[in-house]
Amino acid sequence: MINYKKILCPVDFSEGCKEALNHAIDIAEKFGGSLTLIHVIPHVSTFSMTSYYDVDDKTDLANLISTIPANIPHNSEIVKNDDVDDGIAEYARDNKFDIIVMGTHGHSGIGRVLLGSTAEETIRKAPCPVLVVRKT
């Protein structure tokens, strides 16, 4: 029986990730599950860029979290990993998620496009099903 209790939603703050978050919220409501938002930041070599991304990302993450209904248990995490897809797959594996829900287009790190890179690689590496939501 399919039962998605632990839902992971990688976010990059693009419009595509916002649509994926809406799907993740629907799945959490349907299955009575919990939702975790994860944002993976590639390591950045200069201190000033790292600090900039951390402050910006925390604010953007807080804004997305505010859209999750109060009746859905949720949390968030910012993770640093050289490869965004590795960071997502490792986090899903380490925390035993039932499904990953992510967008197809957006940006991750510095200018990468999700479909063909992050989403595709996440599908290959993920320890669980991956629902890829196309931006309409």
Rg: 14 Å
**Global mean pLDDT:** 86
Query: Strand order of the main beta sheet, please?
Result: 3-2-1-4-5
Largest sheet: 5 strands, parallel
Overall body shape = globular
The N- to C-terminal Cα distance equals 30 Å
The helix fraction, in percent, is: 40-55%
Q: Give me the number of helical elements.
A: 4
- Strand content of the residues, in percent? 15-25%
Order of helices and strands: EHEHEHEHE
Instruction: List segments where confidence is low: pLDDT < 50 over at least 5 consecutive residues.
Output: 46-52, 109-115
**Helix/sheet category:** alpha/beta
Find the count of extended strands (DSSP E, 2+ residues): 5
Question: What is the gist of this entry?
Answer:
With 136 residues, the chain is of the alpha/beta class. Helix content is 43%, strand content 21%.
